[in-house]
Every structure is written in structure tokens, then in C-alpha cells.
Design a protein that fits this description.
The protein is mainly β. Helix content is 4%, strand content 56%. It has helices at 2-13, 405-411, and strands spanning 18-35, 48-64, 68-79, 86-97, 102-109, 131-140, 143-151, 174-183, 189-208, 213-230, 235-246, 256-268, 271-280, 286-288, 335-347, 350-360, 365-367, 370-371, 375-389, 392-403, 418-428, 431-438.
Length: 445
Amino acid sequence: MLFALMSTFSLQAQEPATNEFTIDAKMLTRGELRVGGFDADNEDKERVAHFIMGQYRFNIGYKRSSWFELQLSPQMSCVWGQPAVNLGLAEAWASFRSKQGLFAKVGRQVLEYDNERILGYDDWTMTAPTHDVLKIGYEGHGHKVHALLAYNQDVTNVDVGGNYYSGGIQPYKSMQTLWYHYDTPKNIFGFSVIGMNIGMQNVNIKQDSRTDKKQPQTYYQQLFGTYLKLQPSIIQLEGEFYYQMGKEEHGIPIDAFMGAAKFTATVKDHYDIFAGYDYLSGDKQFFIPAEGTFGMIRHEVLRGFCPLFGSHHEFYGAMDFFYVDSYYSSFTPGLQNLYVGCSLNPYNTLNIRAAYHFFAIATDVMYKNKKLKKPLGHDIEFELSYTFADFIKIGGGYTFMYGTETMEILQRVSQKRTLHWGWVMLSITPTIFTAKFEDKKKAKK
């Protein structure tokens, strides 16, 4: 495939071309107010936090006809008043594409697949995580095939422990992924299948008996799954299932899965309703020691599903209690998420969204020799956004959650189970400069 790509690109590079150069800017500024939450050690005090955070980026792009594209995106993100510690390149990639549909893209880039459950951009976090990866594949006639190859390293040294990766923009040492997608004509039905192999390194470096040198231990885990989407008319149905196996970074076997279904209907113009259910498997014999005591448990098999590198904020509630912050001992009791909601777009510039979530754990949890009840709580969310211009938008939201005793124990929150969270965000994304010019060199006859 690579040989075919390079041969095609070589021929296209000799043709006269239209060159396009652009500079875009992106500024996200969000203020948040949080009331309640992680305060088990100070139950007499109500935890209130309010802060402003921002993401500031330039996108510098170059495009040559339809076969070559280059982008550099320096970015800084921080909480207001904090030093610019998150300063670097959010994206830096080059893309080659042939007329036959073959392509290659190499460098630091965004990975967005299907509904972004497993691989997504997650721009809400402000850091907007990307991947250093080589992506090659084919797109055409309703078919898409992508192969992803990544290998991460901290430094280039080859001394003792030089092959150990302690974690950078992504936590994995290596990653290989194969993704296939097919859409029927008019996009009435589409489906995807994905297979991933991810290498994670242990912080404990083992001794190599043959060379008497210390080498890191790498364990590999695999994910396989499918995503289906059916949209015959005003109704849209989505379904997905993923299974995880292999070993996690400490060598413990993994046997986990998740399934989800979503229904969306357009009741009338500019008005949609939706409902869905997510089930993520959890660890059996999950154990939490009582306050002031220590407890140790080693699972023979990890059954808690991990959604890997997805856009978690889009799926498991706006407060991000699940799959962003870890549970005790990094084990998880899984999650059940039943939700319903609607979105209203009365004008092209105004969008309103409301949703309700009912959360519950997926497995049995023991606390003080008593099995906890599975419900975690109720979550009500409201969001509103207004577009002032093509590149200026302001939005805001409010979320209220009433947690159960189980939620209180698992998340180590205070006795006050009512949690409030509000936010306001300004998004400015103008195109600052654009220019087009033709090659002066004429094609040879």
C-alpha cells in the first residue's frame, strides 16, 4: 500500500497545482461553579469552587491541490492565573491522498471514529488530547479502511531503562488499530468494526537475566467491537458493543465488555427527542475498606470496562463523575446509564438542550460486610448556546445531581449528596488569513 501511495503521489506532485494557505485562531474561555463533591475529610465544610479556564490555539494550514495537506497547531491551555504549563503543539501532521482513494497521514493528530465512544477528540477538557500516529488507508465507494500505528517514547537514550515510557500525551507505549466502515447509498445504514492492540508499560522495571540489564515490562490488551447506525427517515437508531481482553499494565487479565443503544427522533422541524441506555461491565467482588482502615484486594481478572480514549463527557453525564476520575484502587463497579432528553433549535442561532440521567453500578459492591444498593443517583442537565456570528458563540449550562448512599461511599463525597454545577463558555474561531495561488511552472507536454 505504501509503495502504491508513493508512486501515485510522485505523479501528482509533477502536475500544476493550486496552493492554499490559511491561518485560523481558536479561543475557548469557560467559567465554572461547582458546589458539593469530594469532601469526605471535611464534612462540616461545603466545598465550593469557581474558576476560569481557557484554550488558545493557532491553526496554520497549507494545502496543495487535493493530494497534499499540512497543519501545525500551537496551543496553550490553563486555568486563569496559572503559568502556561500546557504549552506545545496540539497538532502537527502531513497528509497525502491519491485520486484512487489511498491516503497516508503522519504526525500528531486527532483521532475521531464513529460516535467517539472509544476514540474521540474530547475538546471539552481544554487540553484536547491528540495522538502521535501513522494512519494509512483507503476511502471510496462507501468503504473506509484505516490502519493506525503508534510507538511512544520519553527520550532517545538507550541507557538502563531507556525503553521505559512513563506517559506523555497518551498513556500507551504502542498502539495498533484497524477500523473498517461501510455506508449504504444515501447513508440509510452504516456500520463499523474496530480492533485495537494497546501496549502499556509497568512502572516496575524487571531484570533481564540474559543481559543483566533492567528492562521495562510491557503488557498488551485488546479491544474488538462494532458500531451500527440506521436512519431510514426521521428516526435514527444507534447500537454498539465492545469487548476487552489481554492484560492491563500490572499483568492482571482483562475480561470486560460494554453495550449501548440510542434512539433519536425528529418530532418536527428543529425539535428532536432522544433516549438511550449504556451498560459498562464492572469488577466482581469490588471491596471498599471502611473509613480509617486499610484494605487490600487483588482481582484475578479485571472485569471493569475502560472506554479508552473516547470523549467521555459526551456520554456519562455532564459532571464527569465516571471514567474521568478513578474509583478507589482504580477498580470500577461498572456503570448503567439510562437517559432521555430533547434538543430544540427554534432559530439557526439558538440551541437548547435538556436531559435526564439515571445512574447505577453494574456489579455488587461490599462495604462493611453489607452489599450496597445499585442506584447511584439522578442527574438533570440544561444547556443553551447562541451564535452571534459565524465565528463567535456563547453557551452555558446547569446540572443538578442527587446522589445516593452508594454514590457517597464510592466517590468519597460528603454527607451532602446534592451537587450543583454551572458553566458559561465563550468560543471564538475566526479565519485570520487565507491566500490561494497557482504554480508558475507549466506542465510538460
